[in-house]
Amino acid sequence: IGAIFIISYLFHVWQVQAIGAAYLIFISLKHLLKRDHEENDKKGKSYRMTITQIALADIAFAVDSILAAVALVLALPDTPMGNIGGMDGAKFIVILLGAIAGLIVIRFAAGYFVKILTERPSLETAAMLLVGWVGVKLLMHTLAHPSVHIISHDFVEGPIWNIIFWSVMLLIALGGWFLSKDKTAKNDEE
Questions:
Q1: Measured distance CA(7)–CA(85) in Å, rounded
Q2: Burial 27-50 (b: 16+ CB within 10 A, else e)
Q3: What are phi and psi of 145, to 5 degrees?
Q4: Number of structural domains the chain divides into
Q5: Do 100 and 65 contact (CB within 8 A), yes or no?
């Protein structure tokens, strides 16, 4: 929750938006472009190292979900709810709920997601494409920031960009689901 307050204060700083966009795009590209030989890591990892990696993954996922929520609420209109931490109150609540939902998903739904990813491994690629696309959205808002102003703020807030953004999100999600091969069905056929 502390990270949400920090991000809410830094929400309007274009450099922070740029770093967040670069981070989301980087982790997406890193996953999509990884080499096969990198998957053959050392098999004998210590218990402490495994726990440390899980904790770091939890933190990284929490940061990712907060950055993604920030990128998604940028398009929402301001409300008369007042400000929390220098940000519109409703936007802050959406980010807070997104972070809480992310933590719940990490804790309770991880097994289910592992099962789905085992059955449909290419869904991981679709998920990373979604992360990258959310990074593009945050990048667009950075480029439209008044201090940068490379892209018109009206375009980024307007219906054309929002239709493009949500259409691509939907296409990635649906494409990821329908184009991923179900390994269990394939194994049943053999």
A1: 9
A2: bbeeeeeeeeeeeeeeeeeeeeee
A3: -60, 140
A4: 1
A5: no
* Residues 78-99 pLDDT 10s: 888 888 777 788 888 888 887 7
| Tokens 């239709």 belong to residue | 163
pTM of the model: 0.65
> Distance (Å, rounded) from C-alpha 89 to C-alpha 83?
5
Q: Residue 42 domain-assigned? A: no
The answer to whether residue 39 is domain-embedded is no
pLDDT digits (tens, 9 = 90+) for 25-47: 998 898 888 754 454 444 444 55
First CA to last CA across the chain, in angstroms? 49
64 contact partners, CB below 8 Å, separation of at least 6: 24, 27, 102, 131
129 within 8 A of 175, measured Cβ to Cβ: no
Q: Is residue 112 part of a domain?
A: yes
C-alpha 37/C-alpha 180 separation (Å) is: 23
Whether residue 114 lies inside any domain: the answer is yes
Structural domain containing residue 14? 1-31+47-180
Q: Where are the alpha helices (DSSP H) in the chain?
A: 2-10, 14-32, 47-73, 89-108, 110-119, 123-143, 153-157, 159-179, 183-189
Residue matched to tokens 């204060």? 9
Mapped onto helix, strand or coil, the DSSP state of residue 39 is: helix
Could you give the CA distance from residue 143 to residue 14 in angstroms, rounded to a whole number?
Answer: 8
